[in-house]
Amino acid sequence: MRRWLALLVAATTSLVLIALLVPMALLIRAVAENGAMSRATAAAESVAVAVGTPDLELTVQQVARPVTVFLPDGRTVGAAAPRSDAVRLAATGRSVTAATAGGREVLVSGQSPEGTAVIRVFVPDAELTRGVREAWAALLVLGLALVVLGIVLADRLALAVTRPVDGLARVSHRLAGGDLTARAEPGGPPEVRSVALALNHLAGRIDELLAAERESVADLSHRLRTPLTGLRLDAESLRDPEEAARVQARVDALERAVSAVITEARRRTTGRGSCDAAAVVRERVRFWSVLAEDQGREVALSLPSGPLPVAVGAEDLAACVDALLGNVFAHTPEGAAMSVRLAPGPSGALLAVEDTGPGFDPALLERGNSGGGSTGLGLDIARRTAESSGGRLTVSSPPGGGACVEVLLTTA
């Protein structure tokens, strides 16, 4: 925008200056020519007064320019010059100005006892244009200086407009990235200040709506868990053990689904955070290692030597790791080894969980269908965690068997 405004002002200023300076330059040249011709005419008239007197030659010599006097008897006094048609026309008693080689000639008639004499004063081109080039150069420098000044002023004016607009753009990007505390600083023209105030109002309204949604999620959690607790107690009171176990399993599945929905809703309302992925993965693997030891599973852990910040909140990443490790325990036989590897990736951090179980068919990995008889919410939670940070989830079956889940997380 600054560049376009500068170009617009430069073009407009140039047109105005051309319309002003070109006539002024032509006027300067005309004034210079008229001045030279006036001085030549005055010199010719001063000589015309001395025509017919003995002081004619002395008067001609005192004139500081080429002067020729054509006498009626055919003689000439002063500088040699041809008797042109203009001279013959001036001999009739007229004053004539004519162009000649190298300049102009001013012809004035003067009366003597012998007849009409013609006084010729030659004005060279150099005298006709004396000072014109210098004046034109001064006008050119003045025009360029005015154009540059106009561009500088336009750039300052454009900066006063574009700087608040750039600030609005930065604030909007921060809001889009989940930073709901971002606010614009009103400034610039009244229209830009109005936009900044409207953006701040919009950000405040979004914050209010998200707060209301968080309250609704908390209320939903309370309302759903109360009947689930009742269902669990009813299942435990059944006399038939098989029926009680079947109902209990359905209640557990329903509770996991409800917990996943509530967790996902909370994750959307709290926005995207950041954490040290190495610390979170280390802590969650330590938690699951107790169960792995009871089941005789070998757990291999590979972590970077230093912190590895990622654009995911600690709670979300912990839920992702729990979901992946929980799938390993739920869908592989006891004693199956597993490995957890966290390493810097090409654009963030790469979390890989592998096991030596029966594996799965990647074509079946869709929401609600993991291919293993479960709800599939574990991998869905991991996928959403990866996508919330700008990454992705990849599942594969290694050549040696088992399963491998890779979660790519972007850096904070």
TrEMBL record:
Listed name of the protein: Signal transduction histidine-protein kinase/phosphatase MprB
Annotated membrane topology: Multi-pass membrane protein
Domain HAMP: 159-211
TM region positions: 135-154
Catalysis: reaction(s): ATP + protein L-histidine = ADP + protein N-phospho-L-histidine
SMART domains listed in its UniProt record: HAMP (SM00304), HATPase_c (SM00387), HisKA (SM00388)
Species per Swiss-Prot/TrEMBL record: Nonomuraea turkmeniaca
E.C. number: 2.7.13.3
Subcellular location per the Swiss-Prot or TrEMBL entry: Cell membrane
UniProt-listed InterPro entries: 2C_sensor_his_kinase, HAMP_dom, HATPase_C_sf, HATPase_dom, His_kinase_dom, HisK_dim/P_dom, HisK_dim/P_sf, Sig_transdc_His_kin-like_C
Cellular component terms per the entry's GO annotation: plasma membrane
Key word Membrane present: yes
Pfam family, one: HAMP
GO MF annotation terms: ATP binding; phosphoprotein phosphatase activity; phosphorelay sensor kinase activity
Transport found in the keyword field: no
Keywords: ATP-binding, Cell membrane, Hydrolase, Kinase, Magnesium, Manganese, Membrane, Nucleotide-binding, Phosphoprotein, Protein phosphatase, Stress response, Transferase, Transmembrane, Transmembrane helix, Two-component regulatory system, Virulence
Enzyme class, first EC level, given as a word: transferase
PANTHER family documented for this protein: SENSOR PROTEIN CREC (PTHR44936:SF9)
SUPFAM superfamilies linked to this entry: ATPase domain of HSP90 chaperone/DNA topoisomerase II/histidine kinase, HAMP domain-like, Homodimeric domain of signal transducing histidine kinase
Cofactor (UniProt): Mn(2+); Mg(2+)
Primary location: membrane
Histidine kinase domain sequence ranges: 219-412
